[in-house]
Hints:
The chain is of the alpha/beta class. Helix content is 48%, strand content 16%. The protein has helices at 14-25, 32-42, 46-54, 61-72, 90-101, 116-124, 164-187, 202-215; strands spanning 2-8, 29-31, 80-84, 107-113, 126-128, 135-137, 191-196.
Amino acid sequence: xxxxxxxGAPGSGKGTQxxxxxxxxxIPHISTGAILRSRVRQxxxxxAVARTIEAGDxxxxxxxxxxxxxxxxxxxxxxxxxxxxxxxxxxxxxxLSGWLDSRGVGELVIHLVIDYNKVIARITGRRECPLxxxxxxxxxxxxxxxxxxxxxxxxxxxxxxxxxxxxxxxLNAYDTQSRPVLEYYRSAGRRLLDVDAGADSPEAxxxxxxxxxxxx
Length: 216
């Protein structure tokens, strides 16, 4: 099993890099953000999750740990997986490490390092297709027709958690709750590699990510 954890601030490109890794490794991309948004759309755990996401806050560790374990236990993740958006807190990181250790697997954490000013510029330009979930960026990956999905012609939307006020809350949450996760991984001797994610092209960033994965 290959367990790859993509770690970084909101807007650092975790989702994009995860999709590129999927193409090369053939293991599933598991996004906790996508799982939570799906639960909200389905009405599952709406009161526990929806208000928290809309406010830009982190969902409780117990809820996220449970959802991730459910997803990792599915057959398609048996050979490995790429985690995006999890863990975000030290208790989540410890829970994941314990879950993996019990199966004789060690995670590789790839820390995508990026300046916050670039993060804000990236996220405020992000658009999503509400039908198929395809992500676009008005600066780096615009749709062929303005504000319309290339695949199905659906009008693109700005996600609630991509609003500027929410972005700032998410970055604050990352600083206070998620950065200590890096210190946990370092102090615990887990495999952690820093990768510069500030390049303009996702493909250029991926060259660094792939080199890190290949070495390991």
